[in-house]
Amino acid sequence: MTGMTRRDILHCAAGGAVLLAVRPAAATPAAMQEAIRQVVGSARLTPGRMQLSVPPLSENGNTVPCTVTVESAMTAQDHVKAIHIFNEKNPQPNVISMQLGPRAGRASVSTRIRLSETQTVTAIAQMSDGSFRSHSANVIVTQGACLEDTP
Fold this sequence. Notes:
Strands 1, 3, 5, 6, 8 and 9 form a six-stranded mixed β-sheet that branches. The protein has a three-stranded antiparallel β-sheet with strand order 2-4-7, with no helix packed on it. It has two helices and nine strands; from the N terminus they run ααβββββββββ. Strand 5 and strand 6 form a beta hairpin. It has 151 residues and is mainly β. The protein has a single domain (26-141), classed as Immunoglobulin-like (Sandwich), CATH 2.60.40.
């Protein structure tokens, strides 16, 4: 599909045939670790004082509920600066990054994520003192999302 213009694609679509190049999901556990390293650098990840809540079994990977809660006073001196969520087998290992500050009142965020297959999800909390906390959870997915190469 390289070199095709928008007009070429629309012309093909008008004729009822569109050929699209589809790439399989490219993320791996190593890609997830590299994405985490880009966020934390050489800092140490400390487990504890945070909770990643995802269902251990998800029938549909298109919408998996996910909540991250971090124990923090949320004061100007001691607060969560950011929460990052990563996965190891989706096309992109970075799921979401949320910036927080002491005026957030509490360090808890909820969202829904897409998971392509059974995998580990990892949450990282960046603290105001420069430290990082982490928590991981395994999710079994019976019907995956993000599968671009399936009809």
